[in-house]
Amino acid sequence: MGFQRARSEEQRAERRRAILDTAAAMLAEMPVAEISLNELSRRVGLAKSNVLRYFESREAVLLELLSAQWQAWTSELTGALPAAVDKDADPYERGTRLATTIAGSLADRPVLCDLIAAQAAVLERNISTEAVAQYKRTAIADVTALAETFLGHIPELGAEDAFKFTGGLLIMTGSLWAHSQPSPALLAAYESDPDLAAFRLDFTATLQEVLEVFLTGLLARASRASRAS
Protein backbone atom coordinates (compact mmCIF):
# COMPACT_ATOMS: atom_id res chain seq x y z
CA MET A 1 0.00 0.00 0.00
CA GLY A 2 1.10 3.62 -0.40
CA PHE A 3 0.44 6.55 1.91
CA GLN A 4 0.54 10.26 1.30
CA ARG A 5 1.86 12.48 4.04
CA ALA A 6 -0.41 12.50 7.10
CA ARG A 7 -1.69 16.02 7.77
CA SER A 8 -4.31 15.49 10.46
CA GLU A 9 -4.50 13.69 13.78
CA GLU A 10 -6.93 11.24 12.21
CA GLN A 11 -4.48 10.46 9.41
CA ARG A 12 -1.62 10.04 11.88
CA ALA A 13 -3.75 7.66 13.95
CA GLU A 14 -4.50 5.73 10.76
CA ARG A 15 -0.76 5.36 10.06
CA ARG A 16 -0.13 4.08 13.57
CA ARG A 17 -2.94 1.55 13.26
CA ALA A 18 -1.59 0.39 9.91
CA ILE A 19 1.90 -0.12 11.40
CA LEU A 20 0.52 -2.04 14.39
CA ASP A 21 -1.81 -4.16 12.23
CA THR A 22 1.05 -5.01 9.89
CA ALA A 23 3.31 -5.98 12.80
CA ALA A 24 0.55 -8.21 14.18
CA ALA A 25 0.15 -9.90 10.79
CA MET A 26 3.90 -10.50 10.61
CA LEU A 27 3.89 -12.06 14.09
CA ALA A 28 1.31 -14.55 12.87
CA GLU A 29 3.94 -15.70 10.34
CA MET A 30 7.21 -15.43 12.28
CA PRO A 31 8.57 -15.04 15.82
CA VAL A 32 9.47 -11.69 17.36
CA ALA A 33 13.18 -12.29 16.73
CA GLU A 34 12.61 -12.29 12.95
CA ILE A 35 10.65 -9.03 12.80
CA SER A 36 12.80 -6.28 11.31
CA LEU A 37 12.03 -2.60 10.93
CA ASN A 38 13.03 -2.77 7.26
CA GLU A 39 10.54 -5.54 6.50
CA LEU A 40 7.83 -3.91 8.57
CA SER A 41 8.33 -0.66 6.65
CA ARG A 42 8.20 -2.47 3.32
CA ARG A 43 5.00 -4.28 4.18
CA VAL A 44 3.23 -1.24 5.54
CA GLY A 45 4.21 0.78 2.47
CA LEU A 46 6.18 3.50 4.24
CA ALA A 47 9.83 4.44 4.22
CA LYS A 48 11.69 3.34 7.34
CA SER A 49 12.22 7.00 8.25
CA ASN A 50 8.46 7.55 8.07
CA VAL A 51 7.73 4.60 10.34
CA LEU A 52 10.14 6.16 12.83
CA ARG A 53 7.96 9.30 12.83
CA TYR A 54 5.29 7.27 14.60
CA PHE A 55 7.37 4.84 16.67
CA GLU A 56 10.91 5.44 17.86
CA SER A 57 12.04 1.85 17.17
CA ARG A 58 10.91 -1.64 16.24
CA GLU A 59 10.73 -2.41 19.95
CA ALA A 60 8.37 0.51 20.55
CA VAL A 61 6.01 -0.88 17.92
CA LEU A 62 6.05 -4.31 19.53
CA LEU A 63 5.61 -2.98 23.07
CA GLU A 64 2.48 -1.09 22.02
CA LEU A 65 1.27 -4.22 20.27
CA LEU A 66 1.95 -6.20 23.46
CA SER A 67 -0.23 -3.80 25.46
CA ALA A 68 -3.05 -4.08 22.94
CA GLN A 69 -2.81 -7.88 22.83
CA TRP A 70 -2.75 -8.13 26.64
CA GLN A 71 -5.84 -5.93 26.97
CA ALA A 72 -7.73 -7.95 24.35
CA TRP A 73 -6.81 -11.17 26.14
CA THR A 74 -7.81 -9.93 29.59
CA SER A 75 -11.15 -8.75 28.24
CA GLU A 76 -11.80 -12.18 26.76
CA LEU A 77 -10.61 -13.96 29.92
CA THR A 78 -12.74 -11.78 32.19
CA GLY A 79 -15.80 -12.73 30.16
CA ALA A 80 -14.99 -16.46 30.33
CA LEU A 81 -14.22 -16.76 34.05
CA PRO A 82 -17.77 -16.57 35.51
CA ALA A 83 -18.77 -19.72 33.63
CA ALA A 84 -15.46 -21.48 34.28
CA VAL A 85 -15.07 -20.84 38.03
CA ASP A 86 -17.85 -22.14 40.28
CA LYS A 87 -18.38 -19.47 42.93
CA ASP A 88 -19.70 -22.08 45.37
CA ALA A 89 -16.62 -24.32 45.19
CA ASP A 90 -13.87 -24.20 47.82
CA PRO A 91 -10.98 -21.77 47.15
CA TYR A 92 -8.58 -24.49 46.03
CA GLU A 93 -11.03 -25.85 43.46
CA ARG A 94 -11.69 -22.31 42.24
CA GLY A 95 -7.91 -21.86 41.97
CA THR A 96 -7.63 -25.00 39.86
CA ARG A 97 -10.37 -23.84 37.50
CA LEU A 98 -8.81 -20.37 37.29
CA ALA A 99 -5.37 -21.81 36.43
CA THR A 100 -6.84 -24.15 33.81
CA THR A 101 -8.80 -21.36 32.15
CA ILE A 102 -5.84 -18.97 32.10
CA ALA A 103 -3.47 -21.56 30.61
CA GLY A 104 -5.91 -22.60 27.89
CA SER A 105 -6.74 -19.04 26.91
CA LEU A 106 -3.07 -18.04 26.68
CA ALA A 107 -2.27 -21.11 24.57
CA ASP A 108 -4.85 -19.81 22.09
CA ARG A 109 -2.89 -16.54 21.75
CA PRO A 110 0.62 -17.45 20.55
CA VAL A 111 1.38 -13.90 19.38
CA LEU A 112 0.73 -12.54 22.87
CA CYS A 113 2.85 -15.30 24.44
CA ASP A 114 5.73 -14.61 22.05
CA LEU A 115 5.61 -10.90 22.87
CA ILE A 116 5.54 -11.60 26.62
CA ALA A 117 8.52 -13.94 26.24
CA ALA A 118 10.49 -11.19 24.47
CA GLN A 119 9.46 -8.32 26.72
CA ALA A 120 12.27 -8.06 29.27
CA ALA A 121 15.20 -9.36 27.22
CA VAL A 122 14.39 -7.68 23.88
CA LEU A 123 11.51 -5.21 23.77
CA GLU A 124 12.55 -3.07 26.74
CA ARG A 125 16.12 -2.58 25.46
CA ASN A 126 16.23 -0.38 22.33
CA ILE A 127 13.79 2.20 23.66
CA SER A 128 13.89 5.56 25.41
CA THR A 129 13.35 6.10 29.12
CA GLU A 130 10.14 8.02 28.42
CA ALA A 131 8.70 5.30 26.19
CA VAL A 132 9.51 2.41 28.50
CA ALA A 133 8.19 4.35 31.52
CA GLN A 134 4.91 4.91 29.70
CA TYR A 135 4.72 1.22 28.85
CA LYS A 136 5.39 0.26 32.48
CA ARG A 137 2.66 2.60 33.72
CA THR A 138 0.21 0.97 31.34
CA ALA A 139 1.41 -2.51 32.33
CA ILE A 140 0.97 -1.80 36.04
CA ALA A 141 -2.58 -0.58 35.44
CA ASP A 142 -3.33 -3.66 33.32
CA VAL A 143 -1.92 -6.09 35.88
CA THR A 144 -3.81 -4.32 38.68
CA ALA A 145 -7.09 -4.57 36.77
CA LEU A 146 -6.60 -8.28 36.08
CA ALA A 147 -5.62 -8.90 39.72
CA GLU A 148 -8.92 -7.31 40.77
CA THR A 149 -10.74 -9.66 38.41
CA PHE A 150 -8.99 -12.67 39.96
CA LEU A 151 -9.76 -11.35 43.44
CA GLY A 152 -13.44 -11.31 42.55
CA HIS A 153 -13.31 -15.07 42.01
CA ILE A 154 -10.90 -15.94 44.84
CA PRO A 155 -11.30 -13.22 47.50
CA GLU A 156 -9.42 -15.42 49.98
CA LEU A 157 -6.19 -14.36 48.22
CA GLY A 158 -6.35 -10.76 49.34
CA ALA A 159 -5.39 -7.83 47.13
CA GLU A 160 -1.63 -8.05 47.67
CA ASP A 161 -1.38 -11.74 46.77
CA ALA A 162 -3.76 -11.33 43.83
CA PHE A 163 -1.34 -8.74 42.41
CA LYS A 164 1.64 -11.02 43.10
CA PHE A 165 -0.11 -13.89 41.36
CA THR A 166 -0.89 -11.78 38.30
CA GLY A 167 2.66 -10.48 38.05
CA GLY A 168 3.97 -14.02 38.46
CA LEU A 169 1.60 -15.17 35.74
CA LEU A 170 3.25 -12.73 33.33
CA ILE A 171 6.76 -13.93 34.20
CA MET A 172 5.89 -17.63 34.08
CA THR A 173 4.08 -17.28 30.76
CA GLY A 174 7.11 -15.68 29.13
CA SER A 175 9.58 -18.20 30.49
CA LEU A 176 7.50 -21.29 29.70
CA TRP A 177 6.63 -20.05 26.22
CA ALA A 178 10.31 -19.54 25.37
CA HIS A 179 11.22 -23.01 26.65
CA SER A 180 8.30 -24.73 24.93
CA GLN A 181 9.18 -23.47 21.43
CA PRO A 182 12.20 -25.61 20.46
CA SER A 183 14.40 -24.71 17.52
CA PRO A 184 14.64 -27.08 14.52
CA ALA A 185 18.02 -28.28 15.81
CA LEU A 186 16.57 -29.05 19.24
CA LEU A 187 13.59 -30.86 17.69
CA ALA A 188 16.02 -33.00 15.72
CA ALA A 189 17.96 -33.73 18.91
CA TYR A 190 14.76 -34.81 20.67
CA GLU A 191 13.97 -37.15 17.79
CA SER A 192 17.45 -38.64 17.71
CA ASP A 193 17.69 -39.18 21.47
CA PRO A 194 14.35 -39.84 23.23
CA ASP A 195 16.00 -39.39 26.64
CA LEU A 196 16.32 -35.68 25.91
CA ALA A 197 12.54 -35.36 25.68
CA ALA A 198 12.46 -35.05 29.48
CA PHE A 199 13.29 -31.38 28.87
CA ARG A 200 10.49 -30.86 26.36
CA LEU A 201 7.63 -28.85 27.86
CA ASP A 202 3.99 -28.77 26.93
CA PHE A 203 3.13 -25.10 27.38
CA THR A 204 -0.53 -25.42 28.36
CA ALA A 205 -0.16 -28.32 30.79
CA THR A 206 2.98 -26.92 32.44
CA LEU A 207 1.57 -23.40 32.81
CA GLN A 208 -1.66 -24.78 34.29
CA GLU A 209 0.28 -26.84 36.83
CA VAL A 210 2.66 -24.03 37.80
CA LEU A 211 -0.19 -21.55 38.24
CA GLU A 212 -2.17 -24.03 40.32
CA VAL A 213 0.78 -24.70 42.62
CA PHE A 214 1.45 -20.96 42.94
CA LEU A 215 -2.18 -20.26 43.84
CA THR A 216 -2.30 -23.16 46.29
CA GLY A 217 0.76 -21.83 48.09
CA LEU A 218 -0.62 -18.30 48.28
CA LEU A 219 -3.97 -19.56 49.60
CA ALA A 220 -2.30 -21.79 52.21
CA ARG A 221 -0.17 -18.89 53.43
CA ALA A 222 -3.19 -16.60 53.61
CA SER A 223 -5.11 -19.23 55.55
CA ARG A 224 -2.28 -19.64 58.07
CA ALA A 225 -2.03 -15.89 58.53
CA SER A 226 -5.77 -15.66 59.08
CA ARG A 227 -5.71 -18.38 61.75
CA ALA A 228 -2.74 -16.76 63.50
CA SER A 229 -4.34 -13.34 63.72
UniProtKB/TrEMBL annotation:
Q: Output the InterPro entries linked to this UniProt entry.
A: Homeodomain-like_sf, HTH-type_TetR-like_transc_reg, HTH_TetR, TetR_C_34
Q: Which residues bind DNA?
A: 36-55
Please provide an example of a Pfam family that matches this protein in its UniProt record.
TetR_C_34
From the Swiss-Prot or TrEMBL record, what is one GO molecular function term? DNA-binding transcription factor activity
Task: Please give the superkingdom of this protein's source.
Answer: Bacteria
Q: Which residues form the HTH tetR-type domain?
A: 13-73
Supply the Gene3D superfamilies for this chain: Tetracycline Repressor, domain 2
Q: Which UniProt keywords apply?
A: DNA-binding
Q: Which PANTHER family match?
A: HTH-TYPE TRANSCRIPTIONAL REGULATOR PKSA, HTH-TYPE TRANSCRIPTIONAL REGULATOR RUTR
Q: What is the recorded name of this protein?
A: TetR/AcrR family transcriptional regulator
